[in-house]
Every structure is written in structure tokens, then in C-alpha cells.
## 1
Amino acid sequence: MTRRFNVAGPCEPDRHYMIPAARRLPEGPDLVEQGAYFVVHAPRQTGKTTAVRALARTLAASGRYAAVYLSCEGGSIAGDDYEAVQRSILDSARSAAERQLPAELQPPDPWPAAVPEGLLSRGLEAWSAGCPLPVVLVLDEIDSLRGKGLVSVLRQLRAGFPERPRHFPWSVVLCGMRDVRDYKMASGGDPDRTWGPSPFNVKAESMRLGNLSAAEVAELYAQHTGDTGQPFAPGTVDRVMEFSSGQPWLVNALAREVIEKMGVSPPTPITPEHIEVARERLVLARATHLDSLLERLQDPRVRRVLEPVVAGQLLAYPTIDDDLSYVRDLGLVAEGLPVRIANPIYKEVIVRVLASPADTAITAEPRSFVRADGRLDLDRLLQEFAAFWREHGAILEGRMPYPEAGAQLVMMAFLQRVVNGGGRVDREYGAGRGRIDLLLRWPHRGAGGGREEQREALELKVWRGGEKDPLPRGLQQLDEYLARTGLHRGVLVVFDRRPGLPPLEDRTRFEETTTPGGRAVTLLWA
């Protein structure tokens, strides 16, 4: 069977290119050996189900454990109906055991009778007591459960922990997108609900699956080369890492897009240029994985993190404590500080979606900004944007889903329309930056007919009421950005949002100035 790059569901070694699952969760067998209850969490489409399924199979194959993998997703529709949630889990456990274990290791049939509050614990007690091997449960999609249903499950697991292994499962693995830290998370992350002490304070570890390293991406792609003879040209893995930061779904999706969708077949080498085209196609297509992330942009917890990130503002203190952990667990922002979007593809898709309310108002014809020599006419682009902003800016800014970044989003939508299909816009933004840096990349044919790239740097800042004049700091920041990009001229756009100003049509204007380092600057006040 021909192997493929997988973008849907768990990976199987005979059907998909994959990094060995055991390597993604090396601590698992030792924790089970210790009788630990532990959590494995990671964003969607990062390989966690593949890893925990493989762990359960390995444990069962060792002959030392009655290890079963099952999904809790079937109980998600029950919500606060904790009895229905428990029955769903017990039904799933029986079905999984019948597929994965020999008859002598399977649970009793029927499950023993019990009060509604203890169906799960009574069933697991009976199974553990009658099984000749220690029972190990791998409960996937645990955080698909909600409210009292999830709380009931976690409380019963905690209560039975001291009775293992003769009267309760020896080890339990909880797997989901989020870390089951406390009742706040157990109730769906609602900060207005208080449930008391943690229902799962017996966990020994909480492990988060990370992204793939450059070496692992190269290893993954080498499997395709070994199967088909199709090589990846030098620099291709670097470009994939640049765009994806090693996010497993994106790593697979970029390769799949080139091979299966763009039709680049063996023995033609896959090049960095192919990856650039694939990146743009993924952004425009907004595949299921990307759409599932974007659906969360209006979630108040997500917005409280992403709006200041996109606007370059500081995060509020409560956000640091609560919402930031939630958004990280979703995979939308990277680990560590400063807070930043998880990878350039997510960054691009998020901004395009947030800026989409401006799309229908932008009527600029992209080819009208291309000069006879093939270069982009930046001066005309800026003049056209200024005219557009005078006419539509006030209305469009108010329509943006993240108002604090409304002005910047409108300008980015305009720039994207102009370069769409011919170039690209690289964006640098993040919490606390106080600005958004943009680098327009426009490929064209040089005088000798060779491929060249025009690069233009822009910095966007907002002047809000009560703040100091941002111009001195903006010129210093632009100077640093130009030095980093090797450019000698740039554009600084200051959106003046102080109250009591004249209308946009009376104050939008251009000036010429210089940075502290002597680099030329076109300054647009808007």
C-alpha cells in the first residue's frame, strides 16, 4: 500500500509517513509502570491520539497489562447528565476491550448495578477485581466532556486511585486538547463557575506534545523520498519550518498540497518555491483544521488574548493567569514569552479572517500598481490607500471584529488585495510590541531577465488618547526594522485615535522625514 502524508485522523505506520509514535511520548511506559495517573494534552492535529493509541497497543502487547484505548467523545452530548456520561464511557470501554483484548481480560458483562453517582467507579472496580492483569485505561477526548459529567468522571477516578490495582485501574491516561488542571477547566473554562478543589489531584504528570523539530521534518520527508524516489531540494525543510514552526498538521499538509493537489510528482524535486505556493493555497483554502481554529476567534477567552496580540498591546493581568493558558492549549499561540501567534501560517490566516469585513469595500485593481518594469509602485499604493481611508476608514474600522486593531486590519486588508497572487505580506506582531511590522515581498524580473524580489518595509502604530506622541519611538523602531531587513527606506503609518480630532478626510496626510539612523521615511498620518 502506498503511504501518504496524513491530514485527517490518527496515523498508521503502513498507510502514512510518520515519526515513530513511541518517540512522541517516551515517558508513557515508565509512568504506567509506576501506576501513575497522568495527562497528555496538545492542540488538535498534533499527533496525540496516534501517540496514546500506540502506547495502549504497546502495553497490551507486552502481556503485562489489560490496556485499552477509548474515546470519551460519545459522552460529550450528555453535558451535565453525569449518569448518561458514565454509561457512554462504560459502553465505549466494553466495545474497545472486545476489539483490543482477549476474552479473559475483558470487563464483566453486564456491568454491575450501581447508584447513578457511581456507575463508572463500580464498573471499574468489578473489572479490575476480575481481571488477571492490571487494567490500564487510556481515555482520549476527555475534555470533550463538559460540566457535571466531566466533574463526576474525574472525581470517581480520584476516589478509586488508592484501591489500585486489585480494585481499580492501575494506571489512567487522560488525553485531550487541554490540561485538566482544576474545576474551572473541567467546567469548560468558565471563570464564573466555582467548583472547589481539583477533581483530579492524583495526576503524577501533565505532558504536552510539542511540534516537530527540523530534524524530524527531514526524517518524515525522507520516508517519502525512500518510497518514491522524489527528493526534497536543499532549503525545502527550512522553508517548511519557517512557515509551520514544525506544527505536525501543517508539515504534512504542505507536503500533501505539493504532491497531491499541485501535482508535483516523482522524480521532480520538491523545492522551497513549491512550498511557498502550497502555503498560499492552504491560507486561501482554509482547510478544516484551520477553520476549526478560526471558529474560536470570537470566543471571549481567545479574543482577550489575540486582540492585544494583533494590536501590539499589553495583555491584561487576568488574561495572563487564565485565558493565555487556554489559548496556548488550543495551539493558537506559542509557548513562552513574549506572546505570539503559534506559526506564520496561523498568523496569516488569523489576520486575513479578522480583516475580511473590509474586503468588499476594496475595489483596487492589483495590476494597476505594477509599473512597466514589473516592480510594485509603492507611492501609488500609499496614495490610493490614503484616499480609500479618507472615504471608508471610519466605517470599516468600526466593523472589524477586534476594534483595538481595527485600523491596522483595514490597511492590511488593502495591502493584501494589492499583492494578492503576485507577492506576499510578511507580518510581525505580538503583545507589547506597540506596533505591527510589515514586509511586502514582490517578485519580478530584473533587468537581466533573472528573478528578483522587491521588498518594502512598513510599520503601523496607533496613537490612543492619553498616550505620548508615538512618532519618536516609531521612527526608532522603524530604523531598527530597516536595519534588520537591510533596507534604506521605509513607511511609517500612524493612526491617530485621540478623541476630538478633525474628520479623517481633513487629517490624513503625508510627510517625508528620516529615522535616527538617517534612513528615509514616508510618514502617513491617518
## 2
Amino acid sequence: MLEKIFINLIDQIIKVQNSHKISPGMDSLLSRNWEFIFSEFDGWLILYCITLKQAGGYWLYPMLLPETNLDEFKKHLPNFSIHPPSSAYDHVMSGDRHWIEPCWGNPADFYHSEMPLFFDRQYYGRPKGEETYYEFNQLVTHPLDLHWSEKKGSYCRINELGEEIEIIKIIKNSSVKLILIRRKALDKLLYLGKWVLVRYFSFNRFNTYWPSYDACKSEIYEPKEYDAKFEIRICKDEYVEFRGAQIEKPKTPKEQLLSWRFNSDEEVEKKYAEFIVQDWKNGRILKDYSINPKNFANYFTESDLPFETSPIFFKAEVLDKYKNNPDKYELNERSISCRGGWYLQSYDINEYNQVHTYAVYLARLPYKEQLHWLQYNEEPKGPISKRAFQTDFEAQFPDEKSLLQQLQDVLEDLGKVEIGDEKLRIWAPKGGSWETASKGLYYVNSENANQWHDFIIALANVTNEGFLKGPLKKIASKLGNKNNQLGTLGLLKFILKASSNEDKISIIYGVLNDLQIRRGKGKAHGTWDTPDGSLIDDATKRLNEVIRAIKELKKVMESL
């Protein structure tokens, strides 16, 4: 559904087109209320406009003109002759000669010729009614990093928060066709190409369907409010046409668009939130302290300011946002990234279940993302994790691998075991890789039942869903199995029993089967069964048991 601003814009275009019929008067045909089309609409500019069905109305078409040619161009206004190209390059032939020719003529004229922003393409391989579409010039989309979004129906880019932002909007309805572009994006393009935007224009009104074009008179009109030149052609009191071009130059300060100090998402310089900061350098807790980098110092600067590596602590729920949207966020054990956007270089969780990171990394996040972290900010209940201290301050590898890393290692080791003359392998990651199989598998850091259920489902997916039924059936068959109805875990149980490893059944099959049962009672099937006691402790205990089960299973398979 269109936003209100665009609905209002379409209504105003239609109203202006027919205003002389709604409020007839001596000067209704000559009313200049059509000039609003050159205005800025909440940060948007109209590139292209054509009104449909009714006689009269707008035609607006944009071109990029090298600014060095502007003075010469103005001499010829308001006259123009333009044929919007349907492609950037054409196959041209003359007799037996064939070559490719750009739409602007001689390639040597690239820096002197007008350039189209888009091409009106037609392809009958598209669905009926959608054969005609607008394809934007790569001179526009590539420097601005724009991509067509089917979801938005617009040319978009990903902002620093990982959100799709419409930059070029295409609107088609029964009354009007519109193409709009964000002012800042257009200004950046004009600066980069040393262009100005020329909007060729025609607007006409009819008082009759069959006006007389005899005895017409014309005059030149140059508005003072903006750079343009038009011819006004008047035919009695039956027809009027305003025809010419308007010239648009960049209005956003150049340094805001082409400087590393600014990004395209912010109107002003970067903002910083205020946090509770552990100033370990000076042995104090700072409250409501801005994480602006100027408020911190590094190890090589003599200052009373806290170090930029001062830790900031948060409730574990700060991570839930990233766990719940794995398509947008990549939550690794020590880092977090947003697709196409920001990156948190380091974080960890201490023994008090507090998430912590350092001021220098938190300050690099977009301000809106800082505000998310701020709502979970709390005073430290203890020091940073032992792992973080070893890696970040002692520059050493941690004493032991994390549980998820241990799980990955033992599963990959199990997948390498080859059994029998056929060299059967009984496990492979679901989806072909650990990254795919383990998607959504995170530690449980809160007593949130939903988080625990997600953990159970993900742990079952990464572990049990990787067992290969075909090889297991062959191994079980060689050990005497005649039951063709057994699933992968049932086959594992049979193999353990038939290979004189009954003492391992509870350690291996029991653990993996209980995981599968818990998964079946999870939110995926609506029964919502959770264990008594701490869900954090249960998840940690279960993860350790699964790691042990896989280690023991590997030993059994190696002995077959």
C-alpha cells in the first residue's frame, strides 16, 4: 500500500490537471499551480511523470546533462526535441557493416552528451500486463549501490541497520505513472558525474476535445523561484501548453555526501548513547557516560580518560533480538553482524550470565542499535569472562574450546569415520555444511522457554538430522537386523546392541532419543513441554551430554 505522501501527491497531480474544469474562470487555463511538480516532497523528487486517460496533464522526462554544457543548453530552451531511448546500446547496421552504438551517439561524447537515467523496456516473456518495465541505467544504480527489490517494487539499498531503503520509487496506477528519487541520492549522483538534472516538461489543458489551433500566440516564461525556461502557447480560450525544461542542481552540501565523516543514512554527525561503563583504568563505575570516542583514550595516550577497552555489561536478553532473526543477523560466539550493515567486533558472556563488550566496539554501531543495547545495560556483577581476558588482553588462545565448537568438532570427526569395505559414513551435516546445519543454534542465556525450545530444535537439527539412514541400514543389516521400519535412532540402538555395546545405549541412544522426544514436545508441535529447574542449566547439561554421546558413538563405529 502506498504511503500517504505518495497518495496525496497523485491526488494533487490529478487535481491540477483538471483544476480548470472544477473552477472555471478567465485565467483557469493559465494557472501556474502545475509548478508544484518541481518541488521536493518529504525528501523525494519527481524524475518522471505522465498522466493517463484524460486529455491534457503532465509529461515530465529526466536527463543528466554535463554541467559544462549548461550555458550552451540554456540558449536553446525552451525548444527541445527528445526521443527517450529504450536501450543504452543498439545494434546498428549500414549495408554489410554492423556495430554497437551507444544511445548518446559517439562514445567520445560521453562527457559532453545528455545521459538517460532509465530505459523504457519491453519484453513479452514477462507476465501479461507486465511486459513494459523501467530498467535503470547502471550509471545510476552502480555508484549508488542500488538493487531492484521485488518486495518493495523499488530500487533499494541496505542501510547500516540492515534494512531495505527505497531510493528510487516507481508508481503505476490507472491515473498516473511516477518515478521518484531521494534528494540525497540524486545529489550524490550529480556530484559524482558532474551533472545537472534536466527535467523536460510539457503540461497542457483543454477546454474542448477539439480545440482550434488557429490564431495561437506564444510567450517565453522564466520563473524566478527556480531555474527553468518555458514557452506558453495559448490557443484562444480552448487550449494552453507550457513546454520547456527545468534544471536541478545539487542542494545537499557536497562534504555530507562525499566524505567519510558522514554516511548516507544520517543527517548530522554520528550520535552516541550514554551507558554504565566499567572504568577499570581508574577503578570506578561511570554512569550515564557517553561512548563518544573522544571520551576515551588508548594505551599510548597519557590521559585520565578511561581506556577505549572499558567493558560495558548487559543482561543476556540483549542477544534475543539477533537470535530471533538469523536471516538478518549473524550471531557468532564472539561477534555479531547485520547483513549489509554494522558489525560488532567482539562480545562475550561472563560467569554471571552477563553479556559484555568494549566501548570502542559499541561506539561503532549505529545510534539506533546502541539504543537497543542501552535498554539492557546494567552494572557489572563480576569481571569479564576468562576467555575474553585471555584473547583480548593476554593475546592468548583460550584454555579450552567452547561447547559449540566442541560439538562441531566431534560431529565432523564422526562424519569422517569410514566403516567396512564399503567405507560407509553415517553422518553428514544437514544442508551440506556446519554453517547451514547449525543455523539458529545458540546458547540458552535466559530462563525464556521460547529460547530453550529454539535451542532444542536447533540442537536436534544439527545432530540427529545429520544421521544417514541408508548407510545405517546397511550396517544394521550386516549385524542381523530384519526390521525395515526402524528410523535412524532405532538403527543406532540396534547397532549398539548387536555390536555388544549395550552399556553405551543409555549414553548414546538415550541422550539422542531424549533430545528427539523433547523436540517433538516443543513449540513446533504445540505441546510446549519444558523441564523443571533452570532452563539455562538444562541446555548446558544437554549440550555436554550430546557431545559425550557423539564421542562415544565415534568410538563404537571405529570398532566395527
